[in-house]
Design brief:
Ubiquitin-like (UB roll), alpha+beta, 7-stranded mixed beta sheet, 14 helices, globular
Length: 475
């Protein structure tokens, strides 16, 4: 929004801005924030930054946790959720003391280093990402995890289970299981709210391609955004989740990006389309399979070769693996194909011109840290290009058939994504060298990610599951 401190101060004066809010992303992909009165904003605030405890963000150790964040004023936006006029600014993380400088493990810095690395290789000067955000807009969520009480209750006004509700007026417009795809009014209960969301997103620099209701009957929706470069798209991903969640809350609704909030319903992914250009020319258009160039196929080969270890960044929650199961429109088989939604990599059949030629990774979900997930995917693609990894020779397809219908014997012949978060951590432990290229991912960050997701997996694994009581209580 601004390129100089003078522009920022001038805007604050003219628009009556009273507060400045700084947003810093942690390892898991959550924003933290700190707010100052506008009078405290000086050029020193921008150049020297503000101190922070990095250990509280999941960075470094407690004894080496003193850091500072410095605002990136180009990311500033007028925050629509503050009652007092306020500007929010995303910030970069720096180390202090001897050898002070950019913190190598700052997720935003990893994204910036990835872009620099790709540019140095000379393969593409523009790498674009276009995510599709699936999520549920709900009307109630409650949960308890006590020693003697395990409970979760999730509700949506349009869900099929509310057809017989009688304790309040019931107007009868409900959506059946798996029946929400492009459902129209009056069943589409979040239509007006989504319209508000996309207009607010566009106003705040997140251009939207379209939005619609998705397959999941109890309120699943999708917002697809226009393409953007890696760091820009990661910034936009954070801003989209911020706007979507807070606007829903303001309107008495609640939003979850959990990959699998409902048993027996469709899960929510974050499919990401990828395009490369060099000097304005499309890099992925060619004469190979599905109109792809050799570079595009090598990029696909790299992503598929590292697909299992990528999951530690692209699907970093225990809930992610409740979605990655056969039969619910989420890929489990590591392969590629044209217009095949059951494969990890899909080449859209309708993208048949040079400027539109692209492929889509369908396994990701929005519990990821977007800076790390997008970076890891592109680093895998670079590894494929650098080493000319042919996806056909590697046995990744093309699979121009429904992978969900394979027999168990046929399925064993095709490599699969991890079935649990622990498996994803194992895969990353065994396969991370491609992330170290160009000093993009620090090894310490990779080890921190493995430690963090293993801790989550252990927390969930030791809690009794309600279904276990049905299966074993009477034995």
């Amino acid at each position: 929004m601004f390129t100089t401190f003078a522009e920022l101060k001038d805007f604050c004066g003219k628009e009556g801005i009273q507060l400045i809010d700084f947003k810093v992303v942690d390892m898991a992909g959550r924003w933290h924030h700190l707010t100052i009165p506008v009078e405290q904003l000086t050029e020193k605030t921008i150049s020297k930054g503000i101190g922070m405890d990095g250990s509280s963000y999941g960075f470094l150790t407690v004894e080496k946790s003193d850091m500072a964040f410095k605002p990136d004023i180009t990311t500033a936006f007028v925050d629509p959720f503050s009652e007092i006029p306020m500007i929010s600014i995303m910030a970069d993380i720096y180390t202090l003391g001897e050898g002070a400088g950019r913190f190598e493990g700052d997720p935003r810095y990893v994204a910036q280093k990835t872009e620099e690395y790709i540019a140095k290789l000379g393969i593409a000067d523009t790498c674009l990402l276009g995510p599709e955000f699936e999520f549920y807009i709900l009307d109630h969520i409650s949960f308890r995890n006590d020693v003697n009480h395990l409970e979760v209750n999730v509700d949506s006004r349009q869900a099929a289970w509310n057809t017989g509700k009688r304790d309040e007026p019931n107007l009868g417009y409900h959506v059946g299981l798996h029946g929400g795809y492009h459902v129209d009014l009056p069943k589409d209960s979040s239509f007006d709210l989504r319209n508000e969301m996309i207009l607010m997103l566009d106003k705040h620099g997140v251009p939207v391609k379209y939005h619609h209701s998705e397959n999941g009957g109890p309120g699943q929706v999708e917002i697809e955004v226009e393409f953007g470069t890696l760091t820009t798209m990661a910034d936009r991903s954070m801003l989209l989740k911020y706007i979507v969640k807070n606007l829903a809350l303001k309107r008495g609704r609640t939003v979850t990006f959990m990959p699998k909030p409902f048993y027996g319903e469709l899960g929510s992914g974050m499919h990401a389309h990828i395009q490369f250009f060099n000097e304005g020319k499309p890099v992925f258009f060619g004469e190979g399979y599905s109109g792809l160039s050799d570079i595009a196929l090598y990029a696909i080969g790299g992503i598929l070769k590292h697909a299992r270890s990528l999951c530690a960044f692209t699907n970093p929650s225990t809930n992610s693996y409740k979605r990655l199961v056969p039969g619910y429109e989420a890929p489990v088989s590591i392969g590629f194909a044209t217009a095949n939604r059951s494969s990890v990599i899909r080449i859209p059949g309708y993208a048949d011109t040079p400027d539109s030629k692209r492929f889509e990774i369908r396994s990701m979900d929005a519990t990821c840290n977007p800076y790390l997930a997008y970076s890891a995917v592109l680093m895998a693609a670079m590894d494929g290009i650098n080493n000319k990894i042919d996806p056909v020779k590697e046995g990744f397809g093309p699979f121009d058939f429904n992978l969900y219908t394979l027999t168990p014997e046929e399925q064993k012949k095709i490599k699969s994504l991890p079935k649990s978060l622990d498996e994803a951590a194992d895969a990353l432990e065994q396969d991370y060298e491609y992330l170290l290229a160009g000093n993009v991912f620090p090894k310490g960050l990779i080890l921190d990610q493995i430690r963090r997701i293993r801790e989550d997996a252990e927390k969930v694994s030791i809690v009794p599951h309600p279904l276990e009581f049905e299966l074993y209580y009477d034995l």
